[in-house]
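Colleagues,

For the teaching module next term, I've prepared a clean inverse folding example: a structure given as tokens, and then the sequence designed for it. I'd like students to try predicting residues themselves before seeing the answer, so please don't circulate the second half yet.
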């Protein structure tokens, strides 16, 4: 799905969803609170204007509060385990980056080995809460676009990439790390481990042209430490692209496969 198609989808998403204020986020100097007045097209455009409609609002102007109970974690055909007892939704982000692999170039039948991922994460909490059907289209749409700049200020013409939550990377081949501390907001950070995985749906976006090897699995991750992290569980869902080729035949020693996904963060 191309970016222009999202604009068409917006035109069809005109129902109003009232949302009480329940989410608060720390902004340097004060608690930033603003009502998410509706999930209508008009309200969405007000908070996430499109190119040609004027500059995007600053982080102090976006609706960073919304009724997070409206956001429902997506389910794969074979469902991941639910959040642990006592966990509540803390944050939702759109991730856009690359899944990284290495190949034994001396063996064409060798299988690419995963060595982590790198992605920039963009604040999508209120979109997930007020218009989740539209939000589910974002990973495939984001994958059709060029990789965004790691600094959100450089993405001012693209509402999906305008408000950065932070970055996702690996500290070793098996330790995904989420750093959601930025100059604008402090959401927390920490190292995680895989608890469960399940195959992406058959109709998931398989990847960019030339890299259409399939969507990476959906995952449930848990914090590696019992304390020190604001959020304790992370789900990677609605994945698009990211799978490697079946073998290393004709591949370079280092492979980057572009992907996008939703990341749902849970905390006690």
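(Answer key — instructors only)
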């Amino acid at each position: 799905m191309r970016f222009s198609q999202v604009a068409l989808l917006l035109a069809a998403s005109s129902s109003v969803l009232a949302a009480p204020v329940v989410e608060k986020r720390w902004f340097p100097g004060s608690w930033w609170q603003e009502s998410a007045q509706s999930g209508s097209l008009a309200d969405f455009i007000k908070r996430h204007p499109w190119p040609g409609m004027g500059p995007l609002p600053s982080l102090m102007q976006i609706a960073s509060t919304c009724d997070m109970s409206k956001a429902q974690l997506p389910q794969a055909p074979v469902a991941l385990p639910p959040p642990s007892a006592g966990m509540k939704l803390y944050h939702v982000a759109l991730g856009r980056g690359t899944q990284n692999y290495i190949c034994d170039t001396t063996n064409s039948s060798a299988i690419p080995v995963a060595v982590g991922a790198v992605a920039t994460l963009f604040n999508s909490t209120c979109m997930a809460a007020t218009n989740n059907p539209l939000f589910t289209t974002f990973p495939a749409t984001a994958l059709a676009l060029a990789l965004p700049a790691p600094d959100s200020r450089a993405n001012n013409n693209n509402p999906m990439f305008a408000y950065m939550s932070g970055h996702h990377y690996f500290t070793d081949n098996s330790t995904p790390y989420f750093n959601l501390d930025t100059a604008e907001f402090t959401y927390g950070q920490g190292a995680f481990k895989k608890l469960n995985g399940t195959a992406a749906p058959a109709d998931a976006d398989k990847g960019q042209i030339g890299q259409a090897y399939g969507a990476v699995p959906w995952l449930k991750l848990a914090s590696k430490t019992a304390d020190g992290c604001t959020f304790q569980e992370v789900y990677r869902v609605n994945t698009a692209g990211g799978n490697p080729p079946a073998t290393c035949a004709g591949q370079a020693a280092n492979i980057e496969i572009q992907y996008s996904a939703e990341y749902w963060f849970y905390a006690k």
